Q: What sequence folds into this?
């Protein structure tokens, strides 16, 4: 028979897993909530750019949610949004310098969209709606799940656009010399087209799953 302490621990682990998984599917920030559309549409013309913006956003979201959760009782309600933006901006600055040091080419390709992570409604929304009201463990798992879900969504677009638009994946050739690249896929119209197709597929699978239940 499980002890009360063991039951509580099991419940905490279950809640943590749920907070992580919901960002991957049920509350995916891109395919469900349609958040962070600027970087999703603008910098996913290649898989490496998509992975970079996803990883950067995840890093910022996890660390900012950590600080917000720890300091939730110290931040006055009147200045909470300004405080969250300041916290997020601090980690965005760190991310920008690290990315610039590791890969200047990727940093240059992402351009202003790294700095715009500061005002990404997905990150600010998780800080306000979740991290400021929950404990550290739950906040970190929520942020990590949302970040991974965002990265998966970005990679879904970046992979398709790079393969069809350049015939490559992460810079490696996928098709032979006879392949004619669909240049439109790496242009803005291609971003909207691929996003629409992924949204269609995501919602179709979601409805099929709900119908089966």
A:
């Amino acid at each position: 028979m499980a002890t009360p302490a063991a039951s509580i621990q099991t419940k905490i682990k279950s809640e943590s897993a749920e907070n992580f998984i919901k960002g991957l599917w049920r509350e995916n920030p891109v395919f469900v909530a349609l958040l962070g559309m600027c970087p999703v549409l603008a910098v996913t013309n290649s898989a490496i750019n998509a992975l970079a913006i996803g990883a950067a956003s995840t890093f910022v979201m996890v660390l900012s949610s950590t600080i917000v959760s720890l300091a939730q009782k110290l931040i006055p309600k009147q200045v909470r949004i300004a405080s969250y933006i300041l916290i997020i901006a601090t980690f965005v600055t760190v991310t920008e310098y690290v990315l610039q040091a590791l890969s200047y080419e990727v940093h240059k390709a992402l351009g202003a969209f790294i700095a715009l992570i500061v005002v990404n409604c997905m990150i600010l929304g998780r800080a306000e709606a979740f991290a400021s009201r929950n404990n550290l463990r739950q906040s970190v798992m929520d942020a990590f799940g949302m970040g991974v879900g965002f990265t998966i969504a970005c990679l879904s677009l970046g992979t398709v656009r790079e393969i069809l638009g350049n015939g490559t994946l992460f810079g490696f050739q996928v098709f032979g010399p006879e392949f004619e690249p669909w240049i439109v896929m790496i242009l803005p119209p291609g971003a909207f087209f691929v996003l629409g197709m992924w949204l269609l597929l995501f919602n179709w699978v979601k409805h099929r799953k709900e119908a089966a239940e």
Notes: Helices lie at 4-24, 37-42, 47-70, 80-102, 104-110, 121-129, 136-166, 188-212. Strands lie at 168-169, 172-173. The radius of gyration is 19 Å. Residues 21-212 form one domain.
